[in-house]
Recover the amino acids of this structure.
């Protein structure tokens, strides 16, 4: 038995054809518009998300600063359960905020550090302890991943809408074919199925 040959005709909806219907042309435009808007929308959404992440990183860097804090009491020793961590423990530290007010709060300090030792902590504008700003490498990673995910989501959403429109067009095409077969059958007095 011979294998059948399958011929794929590309862009058939754009060519002149007596069997082509208006709905085929509409579907061709929907597919083209879907891909164009998915690419452009994905690029725009990705660029906007990357810019938003970059501005957030810059705002975090601008709002936080590193200050020297003094350890109030001796820091405890390391916990055996936290062997895989950064080996830091919680200790009470005191520092002076940029506005001149004194603050005391718990921060991560080296284990068994003596009271009075100087520890660097990051504080925000109000003088409260905050996390250190992200490094340039982490900022690049956050910006890149945020932009790629936003672009992929926006492009996927547009392609999903185009797919739903094509599904509706297919249903309409099938309904038109059913109506035409019904008309042809009843004109000749036949009835199929």
């Amino acid at each position: 038995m011979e294998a059948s040959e399958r011929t794929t005709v590309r862009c058939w909806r754009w060519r002149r054809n007596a069997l082509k219907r208006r709905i085929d042309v509409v579907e061709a435009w929907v597919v083209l518009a879907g891909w164009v808007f998915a690419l452009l929308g994905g690029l725009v959404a990705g660029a906007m998300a990357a810019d938003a992440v970059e501005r957030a990183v810059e705002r975090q860097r601008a709002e936080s600063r590193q200050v020297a804090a003094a350890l109030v009491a001796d820091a405890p020793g390391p916990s055996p359960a936290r062997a895989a961590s950064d080996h830091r423990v919680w200790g009470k530290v005191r520092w002076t905020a940029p506005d001149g007010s004194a603050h005391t709060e718990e921060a991560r300090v080296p284990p068994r550090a003596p009271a009075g030792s100087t520890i660097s902590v990051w504080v925000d504008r109000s003088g409260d302890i905050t996390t250190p700003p992200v490094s340039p490498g982490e900022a690049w990673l956050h910006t890149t991943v945020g932009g790629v995910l936003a672009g992929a989501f926006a492009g996927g959403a547009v392609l999903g809408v185009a797919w739903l429109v094509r599904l509706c067009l297919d249903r309409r095409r099938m309904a038109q074919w059913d109506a035409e077969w019904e008309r042809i059958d009843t004109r000749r007095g036949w009835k199929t199925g």
Residues 46 and 176 are 41 Å apart (CA to CA). The chain is about 50% helix and 15% strand.
